[in-house]
Write a structure and sequence with these properties.
elongated, 6 helices, mainly alpha, 184 residues
């Protein structure tokens, strides 16, 4: 009716309608730990798959040096997981993302060293001298990129939420272990 229409218009214009919640909800959803475990398992599987693809690339492109680099990246993973276990850190999906990023950074450091090594060998230097020069020339680029990423990881750990702190911690551990494994 016209009266009901006017009442409805004035009520809507006033800003609210009286509403009650029913005693029983219409729908209820519960997310259990299984969903997080599934995401973590899939994330870890993608990390292992990524490591395998990187290993194939390194070995296929750099041959024996690629085997050494693959071993260094694997040691990087062992050091990260060992440090996380030592700190009793929780292994989350954000942590897996930090590990994946660390693998990329470790491979980047190895590629920088190996490309410098090729340049030095093309100049006609002996292997020992070429290795020394390659590490010396690649060190500043590796150090600079790791320091800037480390500063970002510290800020993320300092002011981030719990998930972001996990990413920052894992990334920071990865940077330290990546520097160690790529340079030693």
């Amino acid at each position: 009716t016209k009266a009901e229409l006017n009442y409805m218009v004035s009520t809507l214009n006033a800003g609210s309608l009286p509403a009650r919640l029913a005693d029983e909800p219409i729908m209820e959803r519960t997310v259990g730990p299984q969903l997080g475990k599934d995401n973590l398992t899939r994330g870890f599987a993608s990390c292992v798959f990524g490591l395998f693809v990187v290993a194939v690339f390194l070995i296929g492109y750099y041959y024996l040096a690629g085997v050494v680099a693959t071993f260094a990246v694997a040691m990087n993973m062992v050091l990260i997981l060992g440090a996380m276990a030592m700190l009793n850190a929780t292994f989350t999906l954000a942590g897996v993302a930090g590990i994946v990023l660390t693998i990329g950074m470790a491979v980047d450091a190895n590629v920088l060293i190996f490309e410098r090594l090729r340049e030095e060998q093309l100049r006609g230097l002996s292997l020992k001298m070429a290795l020394r020069n390659a590490y010396d020339r690649a060190f500043t680029a590796i150090f600079d990129s790791n320091v800037t990423t480390g500063i970002t990881a510290l800020v993320l750990y300092w002011i981030g939420s719990e998930e972001v702190k996990g990413f920052g911690l894992t990334l920071l551990l990865g940077i330290v272990s990546s520097m160690f494994t790529s340079l030693f």
